[in-house]
Amino acid sequence: MLSCKDVSRLLSLSMDQSLPLRKRVEIRLHIWFCKACPNIEKQLLFLRQAARKLDEEMLHSDRVELGAEARERIRKAVRQ
Ligand SMILES: [Zn+2]
């Protein structure tokens, strides 16, 4: 059985890469029974969206010229 710590780690991992089906099922089951993890997932999804939006705004902005490296740094900061 996964611990809450495992689940939050796996959830944030799953934002960057797709996890094996078995792991995804384990996460789902845990979130189903856990009181805390649904909130963690919500927060991660929110941050994910915020990071994506920031990314798009930067891509479409001609005022801000940022290199890929700087953008990656900001994305990581937003994610934490
Ligand atoms: Zn949990």
TrEMBL record:
Pfam families linked to this entry: zf-HC2 (PF13490)
InterPro entries reported for this sequence: Znf_put
Domain Putative zinc-finger residues, every copy: 4-37
Full protein name: Zf-HC2 domain-containing protein
Organism: Methylococcus capsulatus
